Fold each of these.
Amino acid sequence: MRLRFKSICCAMLLLLFASLTTGCWNRIELNEVAITSATGIDWDGNSWIVSYQVVIPAAISSVMGGSGGSGPKSPIIVYSTKGKTIRDAIMHSYSESPRKLFFAHNRVVVIGEKALQHGVNELIDVYFRNSSTRETVSVLATPGTARRILEQFMQLQAISGAGMKEIILSEMKNTSILPNIPVYQLAMEVTGDAKSAVVPEIFVSGTEDTSSLDSFGSTSIPSKLKLGRLAVLKDDKMIGWMSRKESLGASYLRDSVKQSFVVVPCEDDKGKKGYDTIQILKSSTKVIPKLKSNQLTFTAEVDVTGSLLESTCSQDLYKPGIIQLLEQGGQLQVSALLQEAWKRGQQLNTDIFGAAEKTHRKYPKQWKTWSKNWDQVFKQAPLETKVKFRMARMGLSNKSFDYLMEKREK
Amino acid sequence: MKPAISTLQTVALIQSAVTPTLVLAVPSVMVTIAHHDAWISGVIATIAGMIMALGIALICRANKGQLFLEWMESSFGRPIGVGIGLFIGIYYFNSFCVIVRTFADFISDIVLDSTPLFMLTAIMVVVAAFTVMQGIEAIARSSFLVLILIMLIVPISVFVLYTDIDFKRLIPLFDTSPVRLAIASFPPIGLLSEVAVLLLINPYMKKPASVVKAGLLGTFLGSSQLVLVILLSLTIFGQQLVPFMSYAFVNVMSIVEVGEFLERIEIFTVSVWVLTMYIKLAVFLFAAVHCIFHSLRLRSERHTVIGLSLLAIVTSASEWPQDMESTFMTTLVNMPVLLITNILLPILIALGLLVTRRKRKQQGGMRKP
């Protein structure tokens, strides 16, 4: 009897210890947290304004056409708080929200132009210091206020925070004009040898407000979120924008082109002008620093493989000369993109192409001198381009449709 | 005492005794000093660690199956034997407290931020004490299972991070001065010297002759994980960002994003690391209990475990008011203590054994007839 009592006591004690050794101290129920899908950061000259796009799970089904309730309800709510520091602003959210902000599902952080000009160091510190925030969150820049971006509804995606992340990933995968910049990459670029970084732009295209679900009653919406240019940062502060064309050139130089396209002008035998659209299937770039009579120069060796998507010139694509012409056209286009981007970088006095790292690797001894004055060294360094453009496929048609029509007329 | 642990289990024990603290805060410290050449310092530390392991193993081979303290007493007399035992016992107890605190701070930073520090330290000490009460064989078996898990998780981690790795971030090689490379290798050398625990474990080995193999392999496994963490953090984040990270190996795993279905997998790495940390805690508490129990000729080993554990809970929770201090302790302040106990003392023991060898031989010769 006594032995049995002892065994029961031991079992109870073991169970008690098993529950205690997890170390769990408190609990947060799902209905106590405000799941944040996007965060906006603005600077008003004195304080940070942090905006949160919070998901309302119960309303998602109604906007997606689910049943229940009295008509569609907004699946998100946006509100802002102000503070001397970013975390100070976040702390003020407790004064106005019944739920605790939960950042683990945050997909993007949108930074207003003024905040970008003020600097991103504080934001990076917040992301690396706290375990609740994730360094894989995509960073986007906007010329206006970040809050306006967070308020905008989006087609096909009920939660625009997740939608913004999908747009930038799709853009990067299919056109490579703008890169997806997660927080950790921004931190790496800002602290890199050149101390320069880039952030893609997102803006509201169109004039009217689409921050109410009423706009979704028609087949087209009056305004939408769109990716635009490339914000350029130097020493954590924004110093200017690069156009989309310059941004594509920068992508080639940064060797971040996955898939893209070029539109090559063409001319048939009769002098009729048109365009060939070539999809870039593969691209790799090597930017090689060289020392020529004490002058640092760079050579960009680009290897591109393309496939013809569309042709509006009357041409027989079986002829080797035509393929060569296409390749030469592609070479010229890519080369021009590279030069344009390089020139813009020099104009902005910022090396966003990773030239500093490459120079540091190749000339470690000279780098000790150059690093003190890298901006000037970079500004004076010319770029030589060597583009190897190879047409791999002509698509399912070996002649252009114009060519066939002309033959028939003859 | 019955020999209970196999050579492979000893390898796992040594690996678990050195790795957890080695991969925690040391990589950032090393990158701060040696920049992108920190991995070279890691290799230097590995070589130094292997030499230390070899030295310790050779000392162990002089022991003919006695418990460490019995061996010390029989070699140098009781007062010296007890002195060595108490000195090592106190060292292991202090190290145990520092490790508990480091572990608790880490858990608090990464996962359980609301749980009071006292509760965390208490849980860790209770689990370690429970393991120690099961004996060295249970610790060795558990450590072997943990080693298998490590062998599984390391290749998977490298595979999922493959696309983020850029080896060009390690170039130019030897860009850092040799002095800085040497300084950066000191913290890991200090922690690798913990292989000295082999002196206490050796008598429990089924095949004491394979102690050299076990020591070398255990140290190599531990230090190669350090080099791997440094290489991963440098090739993924670059030299400028790593010094900013308190726990680089967690940051490395936290950037994994495969589609939208494989994210936040750092928790798996942390889980395996937590297992190795518990093994380390058990090994150090075992060593502290072993030394103090035998030196003071105590009667109940169980009560020694309970007493030391209670003292450890209080010490770990209240000795350092800020977590920064315990990190500082593990990386820099502990260095002289580590070097004195794990390198200088074994050297003195080896010298003492050499000096007293002739005397022992003479005594043996006189006894023979």
Note: The longest strand of chain B covers residues 257-258.
Amino acid sequence: MNRKLPFTLAVIAIAVVGLVIAVLRHLETGAPWTPGVERSVWLVEARVDFVASGEPVTASLSIPENLQHFDIGDERSASPGYGFAIVNDDGDRRIEWTRRDAEGTQSLYYIAQFTPRERPETIEIDREPVAEQVYWSELQRSVAAELLDRARQTSSTPRSLARELVKLMALVDGDQNAALLLAQAESSADLLARLLNDAGVPARRVFALQLEDARRRQPLQRMVEIYEEGEWLLVDAATGEVGVPRNTLLWHRQGRSLLDVVGGRQSRVSFSMIRQSVPATTLARSSRTDSIFYRVGVQSLPIEEQSMFKMLLLLPIGATVVVFMRVLVGVQTAGTFMPVLIALAFLQTSLVPGLLSFVSVVLIGLVMRSYLSRLSLLLVSRIATLIILVIFIISALSIIGYQLGYSTGMTITFFPMIIIAWTIERMSILWEEEGAKEVLVQGGGSLIVAIIAYLLMRVPLVSHLTYNFPELNLVLLAAILAMGQYTGFKLSELRRFRAIQEDID
Amino acid sequence: MKRWVSVPQLRRFGMLGMNSRNVDFIGRYNERRLFPLVDDKLKTKLLTQDHGIATPALRMTVTQQHEIRSVGAKLDSLSGFAIKPSKGSGGKGIWVITGRDGDAYIKSSGARIGIDAIRRHLSDTLAGLYSLGGTPDVAIIEDLIEFDPVFAGYSHEGVPDIRVIVFKGFPVMAMLRLATHASDGKANLHQGAIGVGLAMDAGRCLKAVQFNREVLLHPDTGKPLNSIRIDNWRDLLLLSARCYEMTGLGYIGTDIVLDRTRGPQLLELNARPGLTIQIANGLGLVPRLRHIESLDDRRFRDPAERVDHVMREFAPRKS
């Protein structure tokens, strides 16, 4: 046993180091152990990209002002070489970046923390808004009037008028009047706002951001606000729903443009966001970013990278599950860590659609592969062929799914193509060499391991711990090392060797 | 029989599990760099010739596609031969030609084939059709085994072979593998071949199992299995024991066949031998492996001494 002693000590040391760092981080930053006792905070990052043309640059981005449902805190900007200021331009809050001369591709970041309010705040309206004057062409005017007439008949309030208009605009077989106007309008939100103003209801276009955890490169969505009985109400121009959905952030109200860039071209803005769990105490001192734990934590990275790390930090959980299932339970899997990748893909697609699409892609691939094997191609070209076929299968499934009205068809693209191609190749060789039964055993084993890993990764506590305490992965590492030295029986061997019972009696 | 066996039962039996095999034996006694010696049959073959270990003689190797055209003339001098892919596994791609009939060749199944079929088969082999992972391969053409008539009626189609586990040069456990109709002529236990555990002292049948259950008669021929006894048992163990010096691998499975005239012949080696041999023997490997580990290596430099030691030490206990 002496030979194993240094190893055992090392394993224990790794685990202890991980735990100690985690405890220190907890004491220092107040990061909680469980996701329950904290408030979720949205970190939103707006990224402005443009190509500077070598002249003085002024970029100005509209940013949220008084929000009914969110507190704005800790606004920052990451933009080396630029001066920046937050200015208030007649109720329109904007961030302005300026630089004497810049050339080439530029990326500017505005980062802010949004904390959902416990109860919505009423926003004072200083002067009663009036409906804007709307200018229509001759033809448009008569068509709009007719459309408004129809909507008015079935509505009583500004709110219901908006809903009825949306309904008319969204009719599947198409209201001809609405279709005509829509074709000439910028967007359905734009048209809705014009129609409402025309009807004497004060309405304005707004840009809203859908908050979804760990999303990158999201665009803003056009929506409409209408004025009714002393408050502004948000209307979804696509569904006609009135009121602010929980995770919608009003980013920009009508007024000036969303983004102005002087001295640059091809400007665009995109948004990344991430949900963080922060206890009220940390929230209070979130400006204190000088702590060592903050600086070496994942939280100090740009949000775009953080979203990626949120996924990456879940990988060790999957790896541990694979080791556990293979070494201790004795489940056979096709490819050592393929189950982890499948599990990660499931996180994006959710379980049942992911499972269905994965199984169907692999099955179709196996059928195609059986034709390929008749051509006796070399291995490399066989796999390359399979990759192309897999892309075709996935595109076909996505299109069919979309036509049938399932948007989940699209999510198959999250599966790593090359992994799928290899899976098909291995399964097919297995089929030829060991028969269909072995394919079922190993394929089923892989899926079971993937599902277990997926279920674990989805537990809020698990993702909370791996993300807020990355050092806990050292504990997983220690567990994996320890399992690597396990020389006892696998659970499956208790069944495999059942025949020996006759011999020991 | 219960559906599950408990860990204490397995311990009492001395069963070697897969984790223990991988970590305690393969990991500790088999150096990674030596694996290619046994994974590539051509390398094994050349090594056996250097060490004077009996094996079916290598007649020819085909390494390049262009050599295939002239192969017909070279085969003319052979009456029977076997074609094997060097990196094949599980008996795939092995063709056994038992004789000639004019221009035609006769396969072990009785089918008559022309030289064209052989050329195509060689071409497929070189392209990697039978090798693991489809990597390019080499075809080996070697002498035919004329298998010992003692096995007549014991094997369906395939050649019966004897698997001996050799640990640090000591043969520790042996099993005869008989192909059946269910295993499709293959000597692969999980496909339904019969495993016959052999007593280490004289090569007698201890027990026979098929699909993890004890069988008494061969399911295809009806011959009683418990009357099996291997001739030349000591020579066979000696052959397997010498593979340790040959490869340097501490834990291997040796596959041996008995030739009618030439005696035991080494067919191939396996660096990750399976565990089912323990069920066929009704005995666990662990006590035997521990016994070998406790021995002083310096006392057993000579394979013959090691064989004598195991024949004495591992003889079935009279009960």
Note: Chain B has a mean pLDDT of 85.
Amino acid sequence: MKKGIEVSIAASEAAKLARVEAIAAYPITPQTHIVEHLSDIVANGELDAVYVTVESEHSAMSACIGTSAAGARTFTSTSAQGLELMHEILFIASALRLPIVMAVANRALSAPLSIWNDHSDVMAARDCGWIQLFCENGQEVVDTIIMAFRIAEDHRVLLPVMVNLDGFQLSHVVEPIDFPDQKDVDKFLPDYKPLYTLHPDRPLTMGAYATPELYTEAKFAQEQAIINSLPVIKEILSEYSKKFKRKYNILETYNFEKSDTVFIAMGSVNENIMTAIDTLKKDKKSCGLVKVRLFRPFPDAELAALLEKKKNVIVIDRAMPAGGMNGPVYNEVAALLRRYNIKANLFNYIVGLGGRDVLPEDFISVYDEVVKAKKGKSKEKTNYKVIGVRA
Amino acid sequence: MPKPMEEYKWHELRIGCVIEEVGSAREYKTGGWRSMKPVWDESRCIKCGLCWLYCPDAAIYQKEDGFFTADLDYCKGCGICAHECWPKAIKMVEDEK
Amino acid sequence: MLPNIEIYAPNVVPKEEFVVSGHRACQGCAEVLALRHALKIFGKDTIIAMATGCMEIISTPLPTTAWTQPWIHVAFENAAAVASGIEAGLRILRKKGKIPDKDIHIVAIGGDGGTADIGLQALSGALERYHKFTYICVDNEAYMNTGIQRSSSTPYGASTTTSPAGKVSIGQQTWKKDMVKIAAAHNIPYVATACPSYPFDLIEKVKQAKMANGPSYLHFLSVCPTGWRIPSEAAIKYGRLAVETGIFPLYEIKDGKYRITYNPEPLRPVKDYLKGQGRFRHLTDEHIEYIQKRTNEHWEEIKKLASLK
């Protein structure tokens, strides 16, 4: 039965369903409702867990490494500056192969200070060795958090997982959400069985350093782990889909098969792109969408298979390239087109920075612009366009 | 026990580079750092064990007869034992290797 | 003459080593010696969270480790936060019956840089949250691991690679940060200073720290022959001189009550401590006089605090 609930509250309820044992978190807008509700359910005994009220996000991730290395199922959440403050420790959590799950309520990075949504926080943290999943609505947030623990703790994976939800746009809206039964979740997600823990009964050393003779091997091993997590993620998503009767995949498409021109996007912006596609349809224009749900590891072969015969591919980014040629999602897609020798025309639009509204009409204009675009050498100064900037 | 670093293949490292062979630093013989070594004059030694207690390298051990000596595999020759031995039973001498 | 019980050290100090031979500390490193003593007292049922620094780098080049207790290193500034997590994690797992109900002591260890500078915030947070753990600051009075750069724990007048003595500088221009006071300001049950030159005093304090009903903080003066530019065999001697001159008083603060654990009065002049050390070689009589004055004031302050109930 569906229940109307704020998505942040739903995210913490999902952590409860996952029987999280340890939380270490520091408040930051727009993540606050997640940690407040977690504090509540720990305080009133609904969730039997320790909540470490750390003094910063840096210590949040550090304490999470501690709880996880001790063998406890660990959850945390942050946004923007908080994610960047933990940046250093994100790399260590993944290198130590600790299955921490973190919900990131995506928010723009300062300066100027902005509490509103875009993806500049997570994109700055995209190469930290974490598995990264993106959610489009509240239902996905709940289901993804539960799946994230299964993925992270699978002994074929053992990596931390970041569950991204757009700040405010998603975190603060009330949506009807179907919560799975606790007993079904328990069956899907049994107790965490760590491979190594810090305990005197089996002493070991974690976090040794590597000289040049071994660093490459250590990082190569870690890279294999995230690459090899892809089939396991697919398997777990498909198992969840079957058990809970909601379909999940690493990539999802909309109005796709017959469309020559397709958008690629991540997160809540997908809903407005779908509305745009529906409007375009009424004008007999066919446009498709690929929703990238899994950004790390990047599902290049799967995406290539979808893009193979497309004419125009429009990549939506929600972070500035900062002097790079394009937005970060575009860069991945451009690399895969090259690798798989796909000839599609590729476009990059940067939208919705710092909470700027991006409406279905904007995507309709983008579509019109793209289908009219002439082939040949571009005279534009940059290889991307920023939607809605006042010139 | 671990083999030399340069012989490891990537898949031979444990997940997260965990080391299960605790105390395996013993493989590395720090005795090679030494230029001087301690020698005990057992006629002066009172077996107090302060040399053992003050050794940063845990390289001094008590023999069955109760006297102390250095494990030359590890003794770095810092000279603390000789300096702190109040009955003056330890001397640092040139180590001919 | 040492009291009888102290004469036969191996009879009163546990023999088992938890930081084993083969570690790569410099010759005469009194920091690893302090840990050697402390870890014997913490014993087998201990988990160590260590900050980046000398002790980490001398002990764990993959694929070997010098530690025999469970040990983790995460980063430079967060040993106290990692220790908080381990403590909290074990607490919930024990409560849920997922691990045996046995008392495991958590020990976080950092150098003076990792404690007084970059790790101060994480340490303050962990002490304030009242995790049951011991934090040890092994203070060798500079960033020795990276090549003797000054920290806020470097003493006044010391020449380091980033506070070099020069024509217009005496070296370190600020007074050593008082970490003991900062730790004590968190109203934790046990705070103490110790020095491996006084191993029995150190051992007694480790026992107290382990038994404390809450967080405890130990500040170990850790003589560094490399960074202080003294001969390696003099490491114990300089620790002793630091105490005998009143530069580094040995005391504890148990449940708020100060107690001097070893009174070296009459104090030796600070010159005895300063003169043989390369890092202080450039100091003039005037500087030494200033150091003497402040040292006396500090010693009197500790004495006064210790006489309070």
Note: The longest helix of chain A spans residues 212-244.
Amino acid sequence: MKFVFTGCVGSGKTEAIKTVSDIPVISTEEKPSDDLEKQTTTVALDYGELHLAQGSKLELYGTPGQSRFAYMWKILSEGASGFIILVNHKRPSPVEDLDMYVENFAEYLTESNLAVGVTHTDDINLMTNELSKYYEYLKHKNISAPVLPIDPRDASSVTTLLQALTVSIEQNL
Amino acid sequence: MFTTFEEADIVVISLDENSTQDALDAKNNSDKITVVYGKEKTDHPWHMSPGGGADEFMSVFSDIYASLNNQKPSQAVASFNSFDKLMSFFNQLKNKKNTLISFGNDIQLIYDSKEYKVEFITPKNLSMEAYATLLSSADFSVAKFSEPVSVNHNETVQFDSFSFFWKLFQFISIGAASDEHNKTVYKQMHWPPLTMVPHKEHDLAISALLMKGSFDIYTISGKARCQLEDVYRYILSCLSINFLELCTSPASEALNKNQPDDKKVSLLGKLFQKLQQIKKGS
Amino acid sequence: MITEDKVLKRVANEHLQNLVSNFNIIEEAAIVSSDGYLVCKYESKVSSMERVGTMGSSMISLADTMTAELKMGKCVNLVIENELGIAVIIHINSKLSIITVTRETSQLGMLLSATKKYAVKIKQAIT
């Protein structure tokens, strides 16, 4: 089974995978030439695994964030059971960011499930009202998906998002 | 304003004022819930005869029954002259919709230092036996929740179906335990704290099960909200929780028994377990 | 930003054009930043070297990751031999890579040699 993390640059995709993976994450990180604050950016993929009982595993793929790497989005999306779009809440137009990824992954989302993680929030426990805009957007797009504030550095937080996605998948079986 | 019965994915039947308000709130936040009874809301299509107690209880059911059977509500009222027919109706309803019957906090088991008493506060006109019949004779999901736990007490249990009510109260306490009032009641009853969970977890458990659409009876306590979306909002802050235990418990297996893709379900089950392990470790 | 460094772009472009003119087997070429931005290109009508260049940055990064996994030092070059041609990707330095393409399937040696030579030249020129 395969989950794909995608979302804008700096939303925490690589970090989220590193936080929960059972193996050292295979990353393709390079120094960004257009963002002096960010240490590295993914240019091909991130790959991690969750080892499940009886030899099963969940494969976690991370995509590059920038649209110039959109060919990787397609490559990595093949056969995915679930998608996680991470949205940087501090960006100027996070809903537009979300829309960009929803649109680009639309053909895959019809066949699988989506969860949205909202990152860079000051207080993840006080986000209910702020999440409304994401829910409204998804409702407008006729997409049923969980939206959760998460901290990609926190295993509990990332796991919660994975759980939400798993619930969605189970529902839609 | 209200979704019609035919359009609804989930039907909420609420039998007391507080939980009616909760159900209405939930309905207002979800297109998938139809509230079929609201004591103080006279403007919805299922409400026929303002007032309390059994008459109103019956009129609501009559109304739904009429819808299910293409009758006029006035014709259907006559259909509920016995609990057998009411049970038949419930099963009919259950087969057609995911149905949620809310009791609020109004069923209480009272221990007065001499004996246990089961008290139903609303609808006042319905007898305990009638309720017991209603709840125990149908194959509702109450008993799926957990096995009865033995109670160490030397007191006489007067009610014949105590084990049934024990199950029921384990179930109901998921919803009600966070209310101070109920905590007091449970304390008086020497109730084990096995299902004393905070409200948010309660909401989550409800929502998760609601989403599965697989069970039929539970309580909505005073402050609960069962918006379907909220499962995701709450899951974040309350995940030590019974939610996952529900998902990986034998009850969950029962809930999942009709899943079409066994292999995938099995994998998802393993994933749940794994995620739970990560949670506990973090 | 490296792709806005006019001097670097000019120098890199000069060398890239020299490479293509000196080795006529090379039909397309590009220099890209390690994070996928195009610095300069020479392209035919067949391909968009901006897109190919970005793909090249992904591929050589993945090759670097694989090389590290194999504990084989540093990835020197990446050769993609195809039915109808060859592509080579070589690091210029830690921030830039060069990608060259030929449709002559028997010219791997020449393509590799020429590209390596110019990768060194460009590195020296921009340092």
Note: Chain A touches chain B through 36 residues (CB under 8 Å).
